[in-house]
Amino acid sequence: CGWPAGTECSMSNRYLQAITCYFILLLSCGVRGFFDKHEKHLTFSVESIQRGGKRMSQADLKKQVGYTSVDNYVRSGMVVGLGTGSTAYFAVERLGQKLASGELRDVVAVPTSEATRDQALGLNIPLVTLDTHPELDVAIDGADEVDPQFNLVKGRGGALLREKMVEASAKLFVCIVDDSKFVEVLGGSKGAMPVEVTQFCWKATLEKIRALPSIASISGARAQRRENKDGSPYVTDNGNYIIDLYFEGRAALGDPAAAAAELAGAVGVVEHGLFLGMASVVISAGAEGVRTLTK
C-alpha cells in the first residue's frame, strides 16, 4: 500500500492511506474466511480478474462471471435456461455473441422474464418454452444470497416464479454472483426474501405469511408488499404481487426448509424465493479472482 516513489505525503495522507489499507484487508479476509471455513464442502478454480493492473468494477465482475458461465457450460445443441437480472444479462449477451459468430449452433433457450425475452430476441437467440422443451440441459442465473450449501435467495428482481420453473427443469443449474452475495445463513444480507402472491385478498395472505411458525418465531422479521417508487404496487410478469420478508438486526432464517414448506402450503402464495438444493455450480467473482465452485 505504498505511495509511488518520490511522492511526498502529509500526515493526513498517511493516515488516509493506513485507513484505506485496513479496510481493504478486512474485506479480503472476510471473503477469504468464508471460503476457508467451508473449503471441505467445495471445490473451486480461480481465474484472474485484473486488467492492466487495475481492479475490475462490479459491472466488470458481473460480465466476467456471465461470460464464464456460457463459455464453460453451454455447448452446441443444448436447451438453455436464461436467468433474469444484472448478472444474468451478461450470460444472455455472451450466448448471443457465440451464436452470431457460429461458435455455438443449434442452441435454443427458455427465458425467465419478459425483460430477458426481449434481450434474447434482440440478439437473435432462438426461444422456446417449457411446453415444447420440458427438460433443459443447463440454466444460468444470478442470486441475491448464497449459503455454504448453495441454497439461494432469489427474486429481488421480481422473476422468481418463472426462474424456479425453468431452473427446476434443468439438468444443471449454474448460479453466477459476486462475492458480496455469500452469507452464512439465508436472510443474513438483510435484503428482501420475496414471496409472490395473488392480488386477490393479498392482505389476508400477508397476514398468513406473518403468522407462519418459521416466520413468527424470528424476532426482527417483518413482511410488507413491494411497491414501485411512485407508491403503486409492484406487479410481476405473471400479474401477481410480491410480499418481501426482511430479517433485521441479528435475525436470519433459522430453518429455510421449514419456511419453504410452510410458504408453499399457504393458500394465496404462488411461489417463494427460497431455492433450496437446486444449484450445483456457483461461479463467483471478487477480490481474489473468478471462482468456479462445485458441490
Automatic annotation (TrEMBL):
Under InterPro entries, the record lists: NagB/RpiA_transferase-like, Ribose-5P_isomerase, Ribose5P_isomerase_typA_subgr, Ribose5P_isomerase_type_A
Keyword RNA-binding among UniProt keywords: no
User: Which EC number(s) are documented for this chain?
Assistant: 5.3.1.6
Q: Which GO terms describe its biological process?
A: pentose-phosphate shunt, non-oxidative branch
What SUPFAM superfamilies does the entry give?
Answer: D-ribose-5-phosphate isomerase (RpiA), lid domain (SSF75445), NagB/RpiA/CoA transferase-like (SSF100950)
Q: Give TM regions.
A: 15-35
Question: Keywords, A to Z?
Answer: Isomerase, Membrane, Transmembrane, Transmembrane helix
One MF annotation (Gene Ontology) recorded for this entry: ribose-5-phosphate isomerase activity
Instruction: Return the protein name.
Output: ribose-5-phosphate isomerase
Q: Which reaction does it catalyse?
A: aldehydo-D-ribose 5-phosphate = D-ribulose 5-phosphate
What's the family?
A: Belongs to the ribose 5-phosphate isomerase family.
Q: What Pfam family is a match for this entry?
A: Rib_5-P_isom_A
